[in-house]
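Input/output pair, single chain:
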Amino acid sequence: MAATPRFRNDASAAPDPESLRSDRKHPVDETLPPLKMFTSGLQHVAAMYAGVVAPPMIVGPAVGLTPKETAFLMGASLFTAGIATLLQTLGFWRIGARLPFVNGVSFAGVTPMVAIGKDRGHDGIAVIFGAIIVASLLGFVLAPYFCKLVRFFPPVVTGTVITLIGVSLLPVAFNWSQGGNATADDYGSTTNITMAAVTLVIVLALRKLLRGFLQQIAILLGLVVGTLIAIPVGITDFGAIKNADVVGFPTPFHFGAPQFEIAAIVSMCIVMLVCMTESTADMLALGKIVDRPADERTIEGGLRADTLGSAISPLFNGFMCSAFAQNIGLVAMTKVRSRFVVAAGGGILILLGLCPVAASVIALVPLPVLGGAGIVLFGSVAASGIQTLAGAALEKGENALIVAAAVGVGLIPIAAPEFYHAFPKDLLVVLDSGISTGCVVAIVLNLAFNHLGRKPDVETGTAHEPVKEPQAAVL
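Output:
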């Protein structure tokens, strides 16, 4: 008997019902069962928790707050990060990128905030909050114009920036792996680094051995197993749980009404422009990973969510919010693209901000354990950037030179942190961000080599020719 052909080309062939469903939702807009929604959202929270609480941990003592007041700032930062994340993922009107985008306290503002409020106590915090409000409202107004920069982000630029995002985050993972506090006696100890290595191996093994949903939450499972192993090792601190309140609310303007100083406002406006640049790059990166490229309207909504969240944040004693690139790596690794999963994470952040004792449970994860998982997460972002560059026609024109120069300049703050030490402090807000400097260099060189003075046929294929979208980096 002749074998039945696998494919039929005649008109009577019954089409696949799935192929006829025009109303099929994009994975970004799909909802998952409640348990999967919660655990996947919790995984996002675990990945970004340390990044949210670190800025208030630095700024609080620097301005002269007590440990209890600093802990209050940390809870407020979790609460406001949740609000900003919901604005970004769920959105309303023309606010929100509606992508699986996590928002939290931006590290870019730490240095200028310390300079503004150093040793000024509550007055220092009030001046910081006033400057954030003004800068955020200005950013909200500029968002419709700033988003038009997307035309200057062809694959040669986006690939470079995505790679720099991942590479720039890796030192954070290395610092966590050593213990997180360079002044501690056990910083860089064999115990800390071994725990990071053990966690890394556990995450890789779980990704290899597990299947389905358990494979998707391998990072969360790896953090749990690593934390359990860390308990007998002696690097898990239970002090946070003992001292935490069961219920707490970030009372509006707890440190007093915001104050407005011109110098502080200018500094935070610069920080806002840096955050908007990085968020634009992050949205382009995430859009490629989830197979929903970010257009001008998406970026405009995302920037409005960033800036509106930042403007609301000081009301509840939080700082400037921006995109968290580390969670892009989690999306790339797990391939869970639903924005509602990240929205669930935003809800968890709000609950953690209202329940300090619950937040302290997340804080049980030792930084070396988080660092081991972070190596995988941040490396996934860099891998996605490399995949984008693979389709960026590097053999054409001067594209390879653009990547070389932009990556080289972007790596300066990582490879030589003191390189710009003689420059004015205000400039360091931009120069100390390898993502921002590398992004600017890539855009300028792309304009110089591929647009100015070039014939249309030379330009085609570099800046405008459609390039096959890379798949998300997976292990």
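The longest helix spans residues 34-63. Strands lie at 103-105, 321-323.
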